[in-house]
Design goal:
By secondary structure, the chain is an alpha+beta fold. The chain has 2 helices and 4 strands. The chain has helices at about 5-10, 55-65, and strands at about 15-20, 30-35, 40, 70-75. A 4-stranded mixed beta sheet has the order 3-2-1-4. β2 and β3 (about 40) form a beta hairpin. The protein is globular and about 35 Å long. Keywords: Kinase, Transferase.
Length: about 80
Protein backbone atom coordinates (compact mmCIF):
# COMPACT_ATOMS: atom_id res chain seq x y z
CA UNK A 1 0.00 0.00 0.00
CA UNK A 2 1.13 3.55 -0.64
CA UNK A 3 1.90 6.02 2.15
CA UNK A 4 -1.44 7.78 1.65
CA UNK A 5 -3.38 4.51 1.85
CA UNK A 6 -1.45 3.47 4.96
CA UNK A 7 -2.00 6.85 6.63
CA UNK A 8 -5.72 6.42 6.04
CA UNK A 9 -5.67 2.99 7.69
CA UNK A 10 -3.63 4.40 10.57
CA UNK A 11 -6.13 7.19 11.23
CA UNK A 12 -8.91 4.56 11.22
CA UNK A 13 -6.87 2.64 13.86
CA UNK A 14 -6.56 -0.34 11.52
CA UNK A 15 -2.75 -0.54 11.83
CA UNK A 16 -1.31 -1.62 15.17
CA UNK A 17 2.46 -1.80 14.61
CA UNK A 18 5.20 -0.60 12.26
CA UNK A 19 8.01 -3.05 11.49
CA UNK A 20 11.30 -2.48 9.66
CA UNK A 21 13.17 -5.59 8.55
CA UNK A 22 15.84 -6.67 6.08
CA UNK A 23 14.59 -7.29 2.56
CA UNK A 24 14.74 -10.89 1.40
CA UNK A 25 14.98 -9.94 -2.28
CA UNK A 26 17.61 -7.18 -2.18
CA UNK A 27 20.25 -5.57 -0.02
CA UNK A 28 18.19 -3.10 1.98
CA UNK A 29 15.29 -2.63 4.38
CA UNK A 30 11.51 -2.86 3.96
CA UNK A 31 8.65 -1.40 6.00
CA UNK A 32 5.57 -3.42 6.93
CA UNK A 33 2.58 -2.66 9.12
CA UNK A 34 0.63 -5.13 11.25
CA UNK A 35 -3.08 -4.88 10.43
CA UNK A 36 -5.61 -4.98 13.28
CA UNK A 37 -7.27 -8.00 11.63
CA UNK A 38 -3.95 -9.83 11.33
CA UNK A 39 -1.28 -10.05 8.70
CA UNK A 40 1.31 -7.60 7.48
CA UNK A 41 0.80 -4.83 4.93
CA UNK A 42 3.95 -3.66 3.07
CA UNK A 43 4.78 -0.10 2.06
CA UNK A 44 4.70 -0.03 -1.74
CA UNK A 45 5.00 2.52 -4.51
CA UNK A 46 2.08 3.55 -6.73
CA UNK A 47 2.61 0.45 -8.89
CA UNK A 48 2.34 -1.95 -5.96
CA UNK A 49 6.07 -2.70 -5.82
CA UNK A 50 7.43 -3.11 -2.30
CA UNK A 51 9.72 -0.20 -1.42
CA UNK A 52 13.23 -1.03 -0.30
CA UNK A 53 15.47 1.46 1.49
CA UNK A 54 19.26 1.55 1.55
CA UNK A 55 19.57 1.90 5.31
CA UNK A 56 17.55 1.25 8.44
CA UNK A 57 17.27 4.96 9.28
CA UNK A 58 15.56 5.80 5.98
CA UNK A 59 13.19 2.86 6.38
CA UNK A 60 12.38 3.92 9.94
CA UNK A 61 11.71 7.51 8.85
CA UNK A 62 9.23 6.25 6.26
CA UNK A 63 7.47 4.14 8.90
CA UNK A 64 7.21 7.16 11.21
CA UNK A 65 5.75 9.21 8.34
CA UNK A 66 2.62 7.04 8.53
CA UNK A 67 1.93 8.26 12.07
CA UNK A 68 3.53 5.78 14.43
CA UNK A 69 5.71 7.12 17.28
CA UNK A 70 7.82 3.99 17.51
CA UNK A 71 8.97 1.31 15.09
CA UNK A 72 10.05 -2.25 15.78
CA UNK A 73 13.28 -3.11 13.97
CA UNK A 74 13.85 -6.77 13.17
CA UNK A 75 17.55 -7.51 12.77
CA UNK A 76 18.71 -10.20 10.36
Amino acid sequence: MTKNELRSLYTQQMLVEAVVEPSLSSDGWIVEFRHARGGLVPLTDGNGVEQCFGDVDMATENALDIGFHQVRIVDA
